[in-house]
Amino acid sequence: MSKSARSRQQLQIGLIFLVIFGVIYFLSGSSTEDFTILGIRAMNRGEMNSAITEFRKALEKDPDAVEPNSRLGWIYRRMKKFPESIEHLKKAAAGRPSDPEIQDELGLALLGINNLAESEKAFRTAISFKKNEARFYNHLGMCLSRSSGRDREAVNVLQHAMKLDKNYVSPYINIGWHYFSRNKFPLALQWFMAAYKLDPGSKKLLYNISNTHKAMNRVYEYKRWLSLARNARDPKTF
């Protein structure tokens, strides 16, 4: 082997060892921020299990870090793992108490276990920091709709969400469900149809309309809307 070839070989070996030691150093010395960034990237790719792994690594470095706790709370709520979601969101809220998005997410997780009092408190806290956010009023209205004796208040709050964002379909659907759950089917249908004008392709909404016709013994309309629902788009999981 010539001297120049031997030098190139030694250089290549040196580079390989440099890369190996760099990887080892990275894995052993990554910070909370490093793992959080990796978790967010995994979330953006839709790889939620990988994201959970990275956020947990971040919390091993700093158990009270706001961002990984907040992100884990978001993921776990969508997995319907409400106790885990609440645990992480409470830690995130403790570290960043004036963040309305964390408070809103916490309210939704608490609503998942039907803790209406604490859920309402979280939504009202979110609203106190961001008074013109339609989503927060919609979520508060959902909570109030489940609370005994607060029907009028629930509808008023949901209608306020509509005033803040006329193209926001969720409060229309939630008023529809409010009346459906109380067997007021004509009123429920009225609000579901108003929602349909805003979002005619929603699979869930089409099923709502179909089921309302069924509850009203309108067999033809029930079957027609059921057929539309079965052929509609599926909602995204995340």
UniProtKB/TrEMBL annotation:
Which Gene3D superfamilies does the annotation name?
A: Tetratricopeptide repeat domain
Keyword terms, alphabetized? Membrane, TPR repeat, Transmembrane, Transmembrane helix
The answer, when asked if Glycosyltransferase is one of the entry's keywords, is no
Transmembrane segment boundaries: 12-28
Instruction: Kindly indicate whether the keyword GTP-binding belongs to this entry.
Output: no
**Spans of repeat TPR:** 32-65, 169-202
- This chain's protein is named Uncharacterized protein
